[in-house]
Specification:
This is Diguanylate cyclase (GGDEF)-like protein/PAS domain S-box-containing protein. There is one protein chain. With about 280 residues, this protein is of the alpha/beta class. Helices cover about 50% and strands about 20% of the residues. It has an eight-stranded mixed barrel with strand order 1-2-4-5-6-7-8-9. β2 and β3 (about 70) form a beta hairpin. α6 packs parallel to α8 (about 165-170). The longest helix is centred in the middle third of the chain and has 23 residues, at about 85-110. The chain is globular. The N and C termini lie far apart (about 65 Å). The chain binds ligand C2E and magnesium ion (3 copies). One magnesium ion (MG) binds near residues 179, 180, 200, 202 and 236.
Length: about 280
């Protein structure tokens, strides 16, 4: 029995060691202060019409500059924020900030229907009153709900039933995108259940264009599904002119990626809009 207990302890310790290494624990606690200490910022990546390079909107992407460690990538700190629950406050702040920027940019462009895309964590969706709170943040920022696209992942719609949330906000005009489409379990019944209007093709598939037949096949299939269901497709991670040309050949109309622009500071986004709304890649 003693031997078993010992073995059990070792396992628990191992798990702890990987999940809560000293660095991770420290980051977790630092993250809880990050918002209050103004260490978080938001960068904005243009979403463009692939044909012509017209900017149709921006995706808000959160950034954390740690006072000693420097920039921490969101793929690292968002999961930590989800573990601690800090993502709820961070997510509402990102949404509010992004909506205020949107209003500023629409004024600058003469009320043009620019849109803002904001990522939502499954942890936010699980909050009581998530729908009402989300709508409050949007309207308090002065944004028109129908200019806001909320990006949720297939993963979050598997972990919980998000139909109520999505349906309530759709009724208020907010649009929904299924992010990283094709990456998770790709259960097509989501598309039947959820009133989403946009599918974002994950950059891992775009990366294989135009050479990889499997990736081209997947992109083609996603576009066919979207077409028959009347959904818009946005391709992520477009880095080359060849990828853009291939996507256009497959009749994908919108996308984002380093070819057009990296995520940029709000000031750089304002400068871009002042100069016009065309990015010719
Ligand atoms: P995502 O929502 O799928 O965002 C797209 C990611 O692709 C961003 O990474 C963006 O910088 C990157 N990207 C854009 N164009 C290219 C390209 O041409 N090539 C390559 N290789 N990458 C490109 P980022 O900013 O590091 O964000 C990573 C993920 O973190 C996001 O993936 C999203 O899931 C999450 N995230 C970021 N900000 C937030 C936030 O405010 N809230 C939540 N819940 N998640 C966020
Ligand atoms: Mg996204
Ligand atoms: Mg994505
Ligand atoms: Mg992603």
């Amino acid at each position: 029995a003693a031997k078993n207990a010992g073995r059990g302890r070792v396992e628990v310790f191992d798990e702890d060691a990987s999940k809560h290494s000293l660095g991770r624990l420290e980051l977790r606690s630092d993250l809880s202060q990050a918002l209050a200490r103004n260490e978080l910022t938001i960068h904005y990546q243009p979403i463009v019409e692939l044909d012509g390079g017209q900017v149709v909107g921006f995706e808000a992407l959160c950034r954390w500059t740690h006072p000693r460690r420097g920039p921490i990538p969101p793929d690292e700190f968002i999961p930590l924020a989800e573990e601690t629950g800090a993502i709820v406050g961070i997510g509402e702040w990102v949404l509010g900030e992004a909506c205020r920027r949107l209003v500023e940019w629409q004024r600058l462009r003469g009320n043009e229907h620019l849109r803002i895309s904001v990522n939502l964590s499954p942890v936010q969706l699980a909050q009581p009153d998530a729908a009402a709170r989300t709508l409050d943040v949007i309207t308090a920022a002065g944004a028109v709900p129908s200019d806001v696209w909320l990006e949720i992942t297939e993963h979050s719609s598997i972990r919980q039933d998000v139909t109520g949330f999505v349906t309530a906000l759709r009724a208020a005009g907010v649009h929904f995108a299924l992010d990283d489409f094709g990456m998770a379990y790709s259960n097509l019944s989501h598309l039947k259940r959820l009133p989403v209007e946009i599918l974002k093709i994950d950059k891992s598939f775009v990366a294989g264009l135009p050479a990889k037949d499997t990736d081209r096949g997947i992109v083609r299939a996603v576009l066919a599904i979207a077409d028959s269901l009347g959904l818009t497709v946005v391709a992520e991670g477009i880095e080359s002119a060849d990828q853009r040309a291939e996507l256009l050949a497959l009749n994908c109309r919108q996308g984002q990626g380093y070819l057009f622009s990296r995520p940029i500071t709000p000031e750089a986004a304002t400068a871009l809009l002042r100069a016009g709304t065309l990015i010719l890649a």
